[in-house]
Amino acid sequence: MTVARFPVGLEMDVAYPNFEVSLTLLSDTQLRFEIKHGPYARTEVVDIQVAPLGNGLFAVSWQEKDGATVTNVQDYDRGVVHSFATLPDGRFLRMTGPTTITRPADRPFDDQPRRNKALVLEAMTALFQRRDASAVERLYAPDYIQHNPAIPQGREALQALVASLSPAVFYEPGLMVAEDDLVAIHGRIRGWADAPQVVVDLFRIEGGKLAEHWDVLQDEVQAAGGGVSMFDPDERVR
User: Fold this and answer.
1) N vs C: which end of the chain shows fewer Cβ within 10 Å?
2) Which of 57, 106, 64, 58 is closest to 87 using CA atoms?
3) Contact predicate 198/188, CB 8 Å
4) Are residues 93 and 21 located together in one domain of the fold?
5) What is the distance between the alpha carbons of residues 129 and 189, in angstroms, rounded to a whole number?
6) Residues 197, 118: one domain?
7) How many C-beta atoms lie closer than 10 Å to residue 94's C-beta?
8) Is 159 exposed, middle or buried (0-12, 13-18, 19+ CB in 10 A)?
9) How far, in Å, CA of 108 to CA of 204, rounded?
10) What are 21-45's pLDDT values in tens digits?
11) Residue numbers of the domain that contains 192
12) Is the pTM above the cut of 0.90?
């Protein structure tokens, strides 16, 4: 992660416990903050220093005209800002507030969708290619929610299902789409039913693990003359 990933142009509201501040990331060297109400109410443009801490995570520090110094830890994966401020009178504030994006950044800044797709791909291949039941604990959240009515709730049920899979079961991943904390993957699974099935799995990711799952399956049917097939494993690389 580099400063080049800093989400320049992004505007967001941060709801701290006692007041709300609007931040506009003007560049990787300046931001504007606006506090509309309360004893700290004012608007100011400040020079900042940005230190990338990881994917979607930045430390942003500045000094204000009245001498106050502020360090933000801006966590875009979790939608939260941790703020540490020393006021001119010596008081020290520690605050945490959720963020609401009011204007997106001018350029992509976070590779969360890529990381989420990699997590889903690893889960689907670990469970339904390698039939590795031990991967469930590593990749799935403890309170994992399953929306397939044929599969009981929870990680333990999923582990038992994977451990009981026939060697004939094999999953082929295809096209993947990711946005925010959601990933959809199009694939084909053999050995699950009498005929190969084409499936769309939708996952919600939370805290770096698979937290919730929906799926839709249908038997694969060969395309009529000149038609387009239901599934093509090469679609993944498009």
Assistant:
1) C
2) 64
3) yes
4) yes
5) 9
6) yes
7) 8
8) middle
9) 21
10) 999 999 999 999 999 888 899 999 9
11) 112-237
12) no
